[in-house]
Amino acid sequence: MRTHRWWTGLSPRRRILLGGLALVVAVVAVVVGVRVSRGQPEPAAGRPGAVLLVPGYGGSTTSLGELAARIRRTGRTATVVQLAGDGTGDLTVQARVLDGYVNRAIGAGSGPVTVIGYSAGGVVAWLWYVDYGGETRAGKIITLGAPLHGARVAAVGTAYDPAECPVACEQLAPGSALLTRLQQSVRARPPWLSLWSTDDQTVQPPDSARLPGAVNVPLQSVCPGVDIQHSQLPTAPLVVGLVLRTLAGNRVTAPTPGDCASLESLGLTAGRNQGSLSPRLAIDQRQGAPAVAGVPCVRQQRILLPASTPLSRHSPTCRCCSCPVASPGSWPCWYPPRSTWAST
């Protein structure tokens, strides 16, 4: 009764003012409650986004650690995700682990994150995006040799020896319930770059990485003849160059063969300060060559010479690098200024 008298004793203007304030407080409480309950902080507008790198099946972080170090030298924050267990468990659990990393990055002031998923880590990135509201928190997704439609080796393991095929192995079999759910998802995708190598002998078929709505790039369409195996994807100069170019740009765009030289050069330049050169380019210190990194051949020619060709012999436009790339019996030809390249 007293409350009723207090309210009715107020002037109409004060009633409207107090009612409006109560409504604002209620709305704020609901919004804060929803954010807290979802555990999803909002990315800071205008701030650079952190880069999170997700390992593949088995959880090894070595090669992704090298890629993360190269990204950090551009001034970006880059963190390799430590997957639960040995990285062969339920991919939905791995997606939850990734969400924890995303929350911590954004909570620390990051803008929308970029997620780089290598191999099965690409499926984890996709699963995170679908299940954890990635459309508001992901700026870009980059996948490297990801079996987004499954891998034959997982199907073989599931069929012939289920005891030796952990949960993630079963989930990576073509047509699995998890992959089917992801492929049927209607969520709009973020800018997405999917890279794979036609030489991949682990993820078969290699174009399992092809994803509708993404910028799909088989590496040999950029640098014809380049030999990149599955395990080399995170550290190959071409891949590193493509990742760095994508991180630096506002959009995800498809490269062309005319970009081959500049992308490989960018990938090599990014690794100069690691204390050693890329295995593809090593300086012949025996001949007193200056410690400089080479660049691909002028006119972007890839001249292959027999392995028996002496290092002193070379074409008018190129000198020989003795690290086999195209085939075991030939050397790729590069043009290093006033220096000779030799084997590692």
The residue-averaged pLDDT reads 75
User: Residue ranges: pLDDT <50 for 5 or more in a row?
Assistant: 24-37, 273-344
In CATH terms, what is the architecture of the largest domain? Answer: 3-Layer(aba) Sandwich
Distance between the termini: 91 Å
User: How is the biggest beta sheet arranged?
Assistant: 6 strands, parallel
Number of helices: 10
Structural class call reads alpha/beta
What is shown here, in short?
With 344 residues, the protein is α/β, with parallel strands linked by helices. The chain is built from ten helices and 13 strands. Helix 4 packs across helix 5 and helix 9 packs across helix 10.
Task: Report on this structure.
The structure is a single chain. By secondary structure, the protein is an alpha/beta fold. It has two domains: about 50-275, Rossmann fold; about 280-344, no CATH class. The protein contains ten helices and 13 strands. It has helices at about 1-10, 10-40, 60-70, 90-105, 120-130, 150-160, 165-170, 175-185, 235-250, 260-270, and strands at about 50-55, 80, 110-120, 140-145, 190-195, 215-220, 280-285, 295, 305, 320, 330, 335, 340. The strands form four sheets. The protein has a six-stranded parallel sheet with strand order 2-1-3-4-5-6, sandwiched between helices. A three-stranded antiparallel sheet has the order 8-12-10. α4 (about 90-105) packs across α5 (about 120-130) and α9 packs across α10. The model is unreliable at about 25-35 and about 275-344 (pLDDT under 50).
Task: Sum up the structure in keywords.
three-stranded antiparallel sheet; disordered C terminus; 2 domains; 10 helices; 13 strands; 34% helix; Rossmann fold; 344 residues; six-stranded parallel sheet; alpha/beta
